[in-house]
Amino acid sequence: MTGNSDTAAGDDRPPLLEKSAVPEGPVETVCKWACELALVVMLVIIGTDIFTRWALNFSFEISDEIGGYMLAAITFLSLSVCQANDSFHHVELVQARLTPRGRALSGLLFDLLTLSFAALLTWHYFKLELSSWRFGEHAPTFLETPLWIPRLVMAIGAFALCLAIVRTILLHVRRLRAPDTEAPHVP
């Protein structure tokens, strides 16, 4: 071990890459709280349904529907939290051989591409939301949930992802403006 804090376990592995995580902002914090609340709601409703089926031989017949809505809420609202915490998968084969400036440029280009697709999805989710609202669509279930409610969560989650990507892009721009002090690791 050479004592270099940038090496992985002291062997010939490439240096550890810095994360592109940004501090959680208010959007990510609210999304994380909403995900936690959705998880609690899902657990309570499913747990209640399990208990009533077991003890009373009775079902409210809503646990599947509400559980599905809560799962969709968790999925879409957690996107911005994952982006801010740099929790998505990365292919680091090439990244490990780049300078910090090269990694920042690569991250910037990837995040700009990601932002374009996320913005496109956000726009389509809001169009779907407005269509559901305008036509008064309801789920063909016992609750007859207005479909604009779960679809609104999809649009909000995608928009929050766009905001988190913008914050990550700003981090990459700051890294590009910083002086390049490291040489790439070549085994």
Describe this structure in words.
The protein is an all-alpha fold. The chain has one domain (26-177). The chain has helices at residues 26-56, 63-84, 100-135, 148-177. Helix 1 runs antiparallel to helix 2 (63-84) and helix 3 (100-135) runs antiparallel to helix 4. The longest helix is centred in the middle third of the chain and has 36 residues, at 100-135. 21% of the residues are buried. The model is unreliable at 1-9 and 183-187 (pLDDT under 50).
Secondary structure elements and pairings:
Elements: H1 26-56, H2 63-84, H3 100-135, H4 148-177
TL;DR of this structure?
The protein is mostly helical and 187 residues long. Helix content is 64%, strand content 0%.
Helix content: 55-70%
Shape: elongated
Question: What proportion strand?
Answer: under 5%
Number of strands: 0
How far do the termini sit from each other?
A: 15 Å
Number of helices: 4
**Largest sheet data:** none
Count the domains: 1
Q: Determine Rg (CA atoms, Å).
A: 22 Å
Which terms summarize this structure?
mainly alpha, 187 residues, elongated
